[in-house]
Amino acid sequence: MSAEATNPVSAAEAATTDVAVRRRGRARIDLRRLGRAALLGATAGPAPRDRLPDAIGHVAEAHRAQHPEADLGVLGRAYVLAESSHRGQFRKSGEAYITHPLAVTLILAELGAETTTLTASLLHDTVEDTEVTLDQVRREFGAEVAYLVDGVTKVEKIDYGAAAEPETFRKMLVATGSDVRVMSIKLADRLHNMRTLGVMRPEKQARIAKVTRDVLIPLAERLGVQALKTELEDLVFSILHPEEYETTRALVADHPDAAPALDAVAEQVAAVLREADIGAEVHVRPRHFVSVHRARLKRGELRGCDFGRLLVLVAEDADCYAVLGELHTCFTPVISEFKDFIAAPKFNLYQSLHTAVAAPDGAVAEVLIRTHRMHKVAEAGVVALGNPHVGQDQDAAAPGTDDGERVDPTRPGWLSRLLDWQQSAPDPDTFWSSLRADLAEDDEITVFRADGSVPGTISLPAGASCVDAAYAQHGEAAHACLGARVNGRLAPLSTVLGDGDTVQLLLAHDAVSGPSPEWLDHARTPAARIAITGWLRAHPESATPPAAPRDPRPPVSAPAERRAGAELHAEPVDGEPPAAARPAGCCTPVPPDEITGFRVRGGSVTVHRARCSAVDAMRGLGREPVTVRWGDTPQGRVTLVAESFGRPGLLADLTEAIAGFGAAVVSANVEPPSEQRVRHTYTLHLPDAAALGALMRAMRDVPGVYDVSRARHSGGLG
After folding, report:
1. What is the signed CA dihedral for 416, 421, 422, 428, rounded to 10 degrees?
2. How many Å apart are CA 533 and CA 672, to the nearest integer?
């Protein structure tokens, strides 16, 4: 597939070259146009077999433009080794094979990759497809280049069979965990392969395109390499959805007014910024085909300005907000379109202000505002960050040395999660399906740990629950998780977490606890799902959890022996003799609670705790309170509610704690468990009501019990 046939933006870009605005270099890195033109000139067909394209000069030129002080000698040596080792090899298109590593290297050079990455890129297929060995690469170019080359080298299909592709990606991701430049080379490699995929059989094109869609494009998005991601999206779109692709391309061709409409708004924006004395460059960025397709599905009929966006580049962060203020003052802003990714960057390093404004003629244009540095990172992502190990002893830290594995200090949270769970994937199929599911998540959240551990944060995909947080923090020890406190409040494990939440995981003290099958309904991360599935397979008896907690002592629901409670005395009202007083069932007051009473039908007085909700209800009904007081008897009757997580032996431990204070159980009830949470209600006769606080603390100390409170159920008003 030729670049000219699949480039959705080149015509629109050519139409915007007359915009009267200041420019300082290209607003978008058009890798497709630059790469093909440099390698093959104006010819769209295959290069002659007897001539190699002189592309190393283009690579050097692109590299020097980004890194003026770069030493090009090592690139020359790498090119000589690559050209000689690949000599006599040809691609299916008929081109000499050396055109492929050269094209990949040119893509990375245009993105601003440093010399080590380009050297490894030139050599990335030598160990896999030629007689060159990894030891030879290490001797001639150093351990760092050898590590990058090894990271992108496929595993042998004769050893892994059908699992070769998943295991290759597993190996590559592990290598990326120590150096993200491994994945940079792989993404550029896949981009050039996708550009030339037209020579393959349709079924093979579709298979490669699906892997690119499910794995490589999400990785490009997460690594922030938008320049690669957008072109890969269009190439996949053209292969997997050819009819929609042609419809979209025809739609772009049928709107020649798109470029003039965007140019007109760009001129107005540039004039406003000049008048405000804000140094800025204004560029028109035509949408790529997939973006146009999505916009059409979202908005229906598209107009001129819908086929592109305006990009405003400034020098400093503060200038971004100054530009925003001017645009919102001089144009009508579309407030719903405003997003601030500078104050809150995306998890892939992306920073920018997004807004939309309506020009005086009614045209609405989306505007991106960012600094030149932000723009470079937005386009090239991790490639623009250069060597993550600058300042370290690179050879000493390289894999295979005595100092152990290198650690990339810039490793993003999602990559750390991926590396953790992939070790637990029992087979290539589980790894492959879990990888695709993980990469399908579009956003990331950060939650804070309440236990003061280091690190103090956990990175999770958006939509993750307490189950995911438990396995992210505790690994397989999370099997014993009973619940969580989210932002200080008790929450079930099914609770979906939000960005910035504080989470405290509660673990059981016994070693026999394990996850229930329902946890799989709440687990979003592969790490949690793999661990839960593995435990359930090893403990098949837990696949159908009991309907209620098993305990040698059965739950008590019938009233036990009744004993007299604490003495209550009601004062006479309107000269009537004192009425009999009894504690209310809704709050079961005991000495020395502050109390108040109300006359009820039959002439008796019901006594409530002063803060009982029924007191306000009685006052609202116009009932006058009756003065009541405690007698001298220290006994009391109280109803306690214990909230706990179900586990074997829990009821026995609770009743033992109650018996330790000499309290008699008048009645007890255990509700059926819900999400592993069990509610126990006890009505107790206390020989000394002053011991109530100590009794409640003892019950809270029982493993699995997270709260004990006085009954506050809604009872009758008398």
Report:
1. -150
2. 25
